[in-house]
UniProtKB/TrEMBL annotation:
Binds a second Mg(2+) ion via substrate during catalysis. Mg(2+) binds at residues 242, 283, 310. Residues 2-132 form the Enolase N-terminal domain. Residues 138-415 form the Enolase C-terminal TIM barrel domain. It is an enzyme of class 4 (lyase). GO terms for molecular function: phosphopyruvate hydratase activity. It comes from Paractinoplanes ovalisporus. The lineage of its organism: Bacteria, Bacillati, Actinomycetota, Actinomycetes, Micromonosporales. Gene3D superfamilies: Enolase-like C-terminal domain, Enolase-like, N-terminal domain. Catalyzes the reversible conversion of 2-phosphoglycerate (2-PG) into phosphoenolpyruvate (PEP). It is essential for the degradation of carbohydrates via glycolysis. Its cofactor is Mg(2+). This is Enolase. The active site is at residues 204, 335. It is found in: Cytoplasm; Secreted; Cell surface.
């Protein structure tokens, strides 16, 4: 039984307001959840409730969302018996009564849902990952995808692609993967600074050098991987991209540095990158509205490369089902706050998993110290997580949580 709920307006990693939700159980124990927030959001995501009061945080305050937790949601949930997280989430979804959680706020709803899942785990005396594990799914430590170069809307540099990640696919364990990530990150910092680039950080902890061409970044990554003593590729440290192409697609053309490219030009460009560099995964390579392009991209590169839908799919089970139907993408990015409840997130993962899709659990560019996604990735056995650079507290917290889960038991590591 939930005895009380309290949401407070706190800061996220970008210094913008977000919610911290505390749930109190009848026996007095408490659990917390921190709510993440994106910058390159998909248009079909669940809607964050922001105050719009220009005198506070440029309109970005979340006092109304906090008020909804402390008022309506608390009244709705306290003193009642719920059998599981699905029952809590159903109640929240029905009470909100919009398709995008716009009334109560997806930020309010997801914070309560995450805290409630933690409460059930506590009551069951289980680690969160064990409570979240769907029946019949073997838990697994995911391959971390460290975002080591930031561009797009996550950094003030002129690089159009948003994320360049390194993935120690060939590491023997999670902790060795973290070591590889940190060592390559250090080698990359040295290389950038030797070449005269600034080594300041973007929103997700990656470096934000003034480089124009994505291929130049890929070259630097291969050098850094090699210099750190690893093999570039799937048997060592591979590369994953998230261009977040919705952000540089205007009037049907993709604006990369000084070029204006069609969808087919972009597909050619990716094909060349995949041929020349050890790129194993491309997320949001095309814009969320470019379904025809996505279908051609999947046909051309799908057999060789993981093509992850983020803005395209927004962790929405119905949209994942549509993409399966249309053969667009072959993997899903998974973000709790894109859909707004733990139960719907697990449902989106089920739909993809049962169709044989890979999935990658993800942080947002605006984060807190909350480590829920580490447990979610382990629970669902999906084999992949991205949660930023191996630097900055809010990113490292997730990787450290994975190390602790690894140390506590004997779970397998790696892609499924
Ligand atoms: P966001 O970026 O959290 O700013 O949306 C992450 C991503 O695009 O994967
Ligand atoms: Zn993305």
């Amino acid at each position: 039984t939930i005895a009380g709920l309290k949401a407070v307006e706190v800061l996220d990693s970008r210094g913008r307001p977000t919610l911290a939700v505390t749930l109190r159980l009848a026996d007095g124990r408490t659990v917390r959840a921190g709510v993440p927030s994106g910058a390159s959001t998909g248009s079909r995501e669940a809607v964050e409730l922001r105050d719009g009061d220009p005198h506070r945080y440029s309109g970005q305050g979340v006092l109304r969302a906090a008020g909804n937790v402390n008022g309506e949601i608390q009244d709705l949930l306290t003193g009642r018996h719920f059998a599981d997280i699905a029952a809590v989430d159903r109640t929240l979804i029905e009470a909100d009564a919009t398709s995008t959680k716009a009334r109560l706020g997806a930020n309010a709803v997801v914070g309560v849902s995450m805290a409630a899942a933690r409460a059930f785990a506590l009551l069951a005396d289980q680690p969160l990952w064990r409570y979240l594990a769907p029946a019949g799914i073997a838990a697994r430590l995911p391959v971390p995808h460290f975002n080591v170069v930031n561009g797009g809307v996550h950094a003030p540099n002129r690089l159009d692609f948003q994320e360049f990640m390194i993935a120690p696919v060939g590491a023997p364990s999670l902790s060795e993967a973290v070591r590889a990530g940190a060592e390559v990150y250090t080698a990359l910092r040295r290389r950038l600074s030797d070449k005269g680039y600034a080594t300041g950080l973007g929103d997700e902890g990656g470096f934000a050098p003034e480089i124009d061409a994505p291929e130049d970044v890929l070259g630097l990554l291969v050098d850094a991987i090699t210099e750190a003593g690893y093999r570039p590729g799937r048997d060592g440290v591979a590369i994953a991209l998230d261009p977040a192409a919705s952000e540089f697609c205007r009037d049907g053309l993709y604006h990369v540095a000084t070029e204006k490219l069609t969808s087919d030009d972009m597909i050619d460009r990716y094909e060349a990158m995949v041929r020349r560099y050890p790129v194993w995964s491309i997320e949001d390579g095309l814009a969320e509205g470019d379904w025809d392009g996505w279908i051609r991209l999947t046909e051309r590169l799908g057999p060789r490369v993981q093509l992850v839908g983020d803005d395209l799919l927004v962790t929405n089970p119905a949209i994942v089902a549509e993409a399966l139907d249309r053969h667009a993408a072959n993997a899903a990015l998974i973000k709790l706050n894109q859909i707004g409840t733990v139960t719907e997130t697990l449902e989106a993962m089920r739909v993809g998993r049962e169709a044989g899709w890979a999935q990658m659990v993800s942080h947002r560019s605006g984060e807190t110290e909350d480590t829920f996604i580490a447990d979610l990735a382990v629970a669902t056995g999906c084999g992949q997580i991205k949660t930023g650079a191996p630097a900055r507290g809010e990113r490292v917290a997730k990787y450290n949580r994975l190390i602790e889960i690894e140390a506590a038991g004997s779970l397998p590591y790696g892609l499924t």
